[in-house]
Write a structure and sequence with these properties.
The complex is a heterodimer.
Chain A lengths: L3 E4 L2 E4 L5 E7 L5 E7 L5 E9 L2 E4 L6 E3 L9 E3 L8 E8 L8 E2 L3 E5 L1
Parallel strand pairs in A: 2-11
Antiparallel strand pairs in A: 1-3, 3-8, 4-5, 4-9, 5-6, 7-8, 9-10, 9-11
Chain B lengths: L2 E3 L4 E5 L4 E3 L2 E3 L6 E6 L5 E7 L5 E3 L5 E5 L4 E6 L8 E9 L2 E4 L3 E6 L1
Parallel strand pairs in B: 2-12
Antiparallel strand pairs in B: 1-4, 3-9, 5-6, 5-10, 7-8, 8-9, 10-11, 10-12
Classes of the chains: A mainly beta, B mainly beta.
C-alpha cells in the first residue's frame, strides 16, 4: 500500500448525511481513481482524474462527487443521494500511461448507521 | 468493449501443489494485462503485468503468468502453493485511461 494513504479506515454514515473519504499519494502520480468493492463483485470505477482540476465519471458515479485541487489529493464525497453506500472504497493512482501499474491504498470501509 | 473474465469464484489447492488461477480477456488492440492480489480488508497489491515481449511473465512472490494470444488467456500460476498465498486474486486490463477488473477468484491453500 506504500505511498497512498486513505482515511479513515472505517466510516459510519447516518441517513441523509454526506461523508468524505480522504485519499493522498506521495508518488507524484498524475492519475488517481476511486473504486467501490462489494462482496463477491469486482472493483467498479466511480471517478477518475488524469490531471489537476479535471476528472471524469466512471461506471457508477451517481451519488458521488470528487475534487482534484492538488496532484496529491483526490477526496471522494458520498452524498445522501447514494442510497446504498455500504461498501469498501479503494483509491488508486498511476503514472498517466497505458503501461503503468496502478497502486492502491489500504481502503475505507463505509457503513450506514 | 474491454473486459476480463475470471471463470472461477474459488480455487482450492493443497500446500505444495501447483496452482492456476484463470483469466480470459476481450480487448481491442494490444492487451495490457495485470494480476493483483488482495488480502482481507486491504488494498490490492500488484503481482505482475504483460505489456509486450515474452509470453511468460514472472512477478512477485514466485507467481508467473502466461499470455496466450490464441486462447485469449492470461492465467496466473505458481509451481508450489503456500498457505500464505490464500487471498483474493484479480485479473485486470487497461484501455483508454481506465482499468477493467475481473470479478475476482478466491484462492484457498490448505495445509
Amino acid at each position: 500500500d506504500g505511498g497512498i494513504t486513505q482515511s479513515p479506515k472505517y466510516l459510519f454514515r447516518k441517513e441523509g448525511q454526506n461523508v468524505t473519504l480522504s485519499c493522498e499519494q506521495n508518488l507524484n502520480h498524475d492519475a488517481m481513481y476511486w473504486y467501490r468493492q462489494d462482496p463477491g463483485q469486482g472493483l467498479r470505477l466511480i471517478y477518475y482524474s488524469q490531471i489537476v482540476n479535471d476528472f471524469q465519471k466512471g461506471d457508477i458515479a451517481e451519488g458521488y462527487s470528487v475534487s482534484r485541487e492538488k496532484k496529491e489529493s483526490f477526496p471522494l464525497t458520498v452524498t445522501s443521494a447514494q442510497k446504498n453506500p455500504t461498501a469498501f472504497y479503494l483509491c488508486a493512482s498511476s503514472i498517466f500511461s497505458s503501461q503503468e501499474t496502478q497502486y492502491f491504498g489500504p481502503g475505507t470501509r463505509l457503513l450506514v448507521l | 468493449a474491454q473486459s476480463v473474465a475470471q471463470p472461477e469464484d474459488q480455487v482450492n489447492v493443497a500446500e505444495g501443489n501447483p496452482l492456476t488461477v484463470k483469466c480470459t480477456y476481450s480487448v481491442s488492440g494490444n492487451p495490457y494485462l495485470f494480476w493483483y492480489v488482495q488480502y482481507p480488508n486491504r488494498g490490492l497489491q500488484f503481482l505482475l503485468k504483460y505489456i509486450t515481449g515474452d509470453n511468460l511473465v514472472k512477478g512477485s512472490y514466485g507467481f508467473e503468468a502466461e499470455f496466450n494470444k490464441s486462447q485469449t488467456s492470461f492465467h496466473l500460476k505458481k509451481p508450489s502453493a503456500l498457505v500464505s498465498d490464500s487471498a483474493l486474486y484479480f485479473c485486470a486490463t487497461y484501455n483508454f485511461n481506465k482499468f477493467y477488473f475481473g470479478s475476482g477468484t478466491k484462492l484457498n491453500v490448505k495445509p
